[in-house]
Design a protein that fits this description.
This protein is of the alpha/beta class. The protein contains ten helices and 13 strands.
Length: about 350
């Protein structure tokens, strides 16, 4: 286990970032949160998130754009980070069809800036968000990190797969320990307004219909925010080692001869989207009017995480039920919007 005293979280005002900052500062770790507070969604929610979750003398916010090479370089030089958690990304599959360039700026250019910062300042561990979307056209369930993922179906997914490849290169060239985490449909209090749970809750409370894609025939491995954060927290403190049994004849995508690992963090349980909506209706005490629509470009019909490696290496498995998680989100939503 590494002694981690100071951590940089990029996307520190984001949904996962602010929750992770709260978890780290609670055990005395100093956290610097890099976030440019862009307007992809209401920046006020990001400011309020930090104010509610990531408070105290151990926390500071650096308003920097990840794609600003000089500013990122300067930040790394000012601080001596033990670990970096890269959560900053242009997120969302559907938005990547509208504004592809923003994915290149943040997810590719920004990620190189992070890799270079880690390389030149002796960071002990880079942990970065990948995504369940990298599984793309894969159909074998549950999705395993040991399966090949070379057929993404959105630019967002391709950018996340690129992050894994870039990280491997730095692990190989500079012996930089890197761990990629493929998150599966994260939800919970302080969630993103562009995600289904937020959109559905808002629409139902405003007596508007909700858009249900693929005519409701969607399945997702919904993962509660606290489960994601606990997984990330454990991963930060354990540096990956090279796999002595790794072979270039039969290359295992999840490991390497160098200090590189990839894990899924999901609930290991696929739920029907219509069940998700049903639980939300129960929590809100209202029925949703459903507008059934076809599958959207870049989307996949189902996600389902194999988390055996997470269990084996960290003795950890997410397990929060939909009923509990959605209930907590609804409580937060009503409180935040004073309903």
């Amino acid at each position: 286990m590494n002694e981690i005293k100071k951590v940089l979280i990029t996307g520190g005002a984001g949904f996962i970032g602010a929750h992770l900052a709260q978890r780290l500062t609670a055990v005395g770790t100093e956290v610097v949160a890099l976030d440019n507070l862009n307007d992809y969604y209401d920046p006020q929610l990001k400011v309020d998130r930090m104010a509610a979750l990531a408070t105290g003398e151990n926390f500071s916010h650096a308003k920097i754009d990840l794609a600003d090479r000089a500013a990122v370089e300067s930040l790394f030089q000012q601080h001596s980070f033990d670990a970096v958690v890269n959560l900053a990304a242009q997120a969302g599959v559907r938005y990547s069809l509208i504004n592809p360039h923003s994915y290149v700026d943040t997810n590719l250019v920004g990620f190189v800036n992070i890799l270079e910062g880690c390389r030149h300042t002796g960071v002990k561990h880079l942990v970065y968000a990948s995504s369940s979307s990298v599984y793309g056209a894969n159909t074998r369930m549950p999705f395993s990190v040991h399966d090949n993922v070379d057929h993404p179906v959105s630019l967002y997914a391709a950018s996340k797969k690129a992050n894994e490849l870039m990280a491997h290169t730095y692990s190989h060239l500079f012996n930089l320990p890197t761990t990629g985490l493929r998150f599966f449909t994260v939800y919970g209090p302080w969630g993103r307004p562009d995600m289904a749970l937020f959109l559905f809750t808002k629409a139902i409370l405003e007596n508007r219909p909700i858009d249900v894609f693929n005519n409701g025939k969607m399945e997702r491995d919904f993962t509660y925010i606290d489960d994601i954060v606990e997984g990330v927290f454990r991963v930060i403190h354990k540096t990956p080692q090279g796999n002595l049994n790794w072979s270039g004849d039969r290359p295992d995508p999840a490991t390497s001869y160098c200090p590189y690992r990839v894990y899924n963090i999901g609930n290991n349980n696929k739920e029907k989207l219509l069940r998700y909506i049903e639980v939300l209706e129960e929590c809100l005490g209202r029925k949703a009017e459903k507008n059934f629509l076809p599958m959207q470009p870049g989307d996949v019909p189902a996600t389902y995480a194999n988390v055996d490696d997470l269990v084996d290496d960290f003795d950890y498995k997410p397990a929060t039920s939909l009923e509990f998680g959605i209930g907590r989100f609804v409580d937060w939503y009503k409180s935040y919007f004073k309903i």
